[in-house]
Amino acid sequence: WLVGMAAGALPLLWIILNFRMLWDSEDGVIRLILGLVFLALLILRRKPDAQNSLPEDQGRRAITKTMFAAAGGSALVLTGILLYAQTFTWAGILLIAYAGLRHVVPLVFAPDIGKALFVLFWINPLPYQVLNPFRFGLQGLSVEGAGWLSQVVNVRVWVDGFVLRAGGVTFEVPEACSGMRAVTTVFMLCLGLGLLKRMRWPMITGLVLAAWCQALILNVLRIVLNVILVTRFGGFNAAEIYHTSLGLLLLFAVIAVCLDVAVLDAWRRRRRAQQDAHAAHENPDASKRAISYLPAEWQFDKHRFGWLMLILAAILTIGATMYRSRPFHRAEM
Predict the structure, then answer these.
(1) Confidence at residue 326, expressed as pLDDT on a 0 to 100 scale
(2) Phi, psi of 292 (to 5 degrees)
(3) What is the DSSP string of 36-53?
(4) CA distances from 227 to 159, 163, 230, 233, 333 (A)
(5) Helix (H) or strand (E) holding 227
(6) Residue 178, exposed/middle/buried by CB under 10 A (0-12, 13-18, 19+)?
(7) Which of 22, 121, 218, 270 is the most exposed place for a label (fewest CB within 10 A)?
(8) Rounded CA Rg of the chain
(9) How far is the C-alpha of 80 from the C-alpha of 67, rounded, in Å?
(10) Dihedral (CA of 313, 314, 319, 322) sign
């Protein structure tokens, strides 16, 4: 028991010894806080009732997984020390911690321990570098999208690399304030919240991609609003207002991720309730109609009417955008 707990404490010891490196790295504070918060939430959350009774062969499987995790973690730690590869060392420490914790805690905690340590893996600066190509790509798309949208709303600008030029005003989009640092925040949030809500990996992947698209759209709107404020109203410092608005972007990106997770979770619950109703040979729409005083036919038409209005609004928006995006109009801008 003592050896297992000591192995489980290895990640915390590594964090203490490398705290300065983690704190000073780019986005290190956000990754460290989110990683530790989701580590605690995933391990301490309530376990499903179905896991309270485990098959007898789970004990043998647990011992096998523990041995493989301990052996693989030790090999990775030695490889990381010999090759000076910090990522291998960190991954090996987490595998050893996983093996130690599986040995001392009840088996119902095992899945959540693995998920929690996987989230903690991303606090290391080197694995986080995998996201850099996405960040730089989204930064370029932000500038191009902001230039296009500014011309659509009749703001005279043109794109020059990572710079927007509007007459005598220059809007530089530096990497530090580009807004694509939100990629790190939304990735950690989607990963942690998705695992906390027990979503499947394909759904978590889709959630991450949707959150990145939302961050891109929010960043484009942020740049365009800054351009409009400076060019139309004046009295604003372009660099200062651009840097100040970064906090608002992160705030709205976090709110959007939380709303996405809430909507997905509500959809999963509703789908599960409908499947249970079908299994019980009940009408899955009965509870939905029971809370409305309208006849069933009117409810059906109201539902279709909402979708019709949404499609009509989308068609009008796309049509207006295409009209404003024609080459003649963009050349004038």
Answers:
(1) 58
(2) -120, 145
(3) HHHHHHHHHSPPPGGGGS
(4) 12, 12, 5, 10, 14
(5) helix 201-228
(6) buried
(7) 270
(8) 25
(9) 20
(10) positive
Q: How many other C-beta atoms are found inside a 10 Å radius of the C-beta of residue 129? A: 12
Contacts 24+ apart (CB under 8 A), 260-265: 260/190, 260/207, 260/210, 260/211, 260/214, 261/190, 261/193, 261/194, 261/197, 261/207, 264/197, 264/199, 264/203, 264/207, 265/197
Distances in Å between the alpha carbon of 22 and those of 122, 127, 175? 11, 12, 20
Task: Say yes or no to pLDDT of 147 above 80.
Answer: yes
Q: Give the residues across from 171 on adjacent strands.
A: 164
Q: What is the pLDDT of residues 239-255, one digit of tens each?
A: 677 777 777 888 888 88
Predicted confidence at residue 152, as pLDDT, reads: 80
Task: Please state the rounded mean pLDDT for residues 152-177.
Answer: 76
Neighbours of 321 (CB within 10 A): 12
The pair of structure tokens assigned to 105 is: 């805690």
CA distance readout (Å), 141 to 64, 68, 128, 149, 194: 48, 44, 21, 12, 27
Q: What is the pLDDT of residue 110?
A: 77
Residue 293: what pLDDT? 45
The Cα–Cα gap between 124 and 114 comes to 17
Determine how many CB atoms are found less than 10 A away from the CB of residue 74: 15
The two structure tokens encoding residue 145: 């999208």
Q: Is 281 left (phi over 0), alpha (psi -120 to 50) or beta?
A: left
Which residue type occupies 4?
G
Question: How do residues 98-112 score in pLDDT, each as one tens digit?
Answer: 888 887 777 777 788
Give 262-281 pLDDT, tens digit per residue: 888 888 888 887 777 767 65
Residue 59 has pLDDT above 60, yes or no: no
Backbone angles phi, psi at 160, to 5 degrees: -130, 85
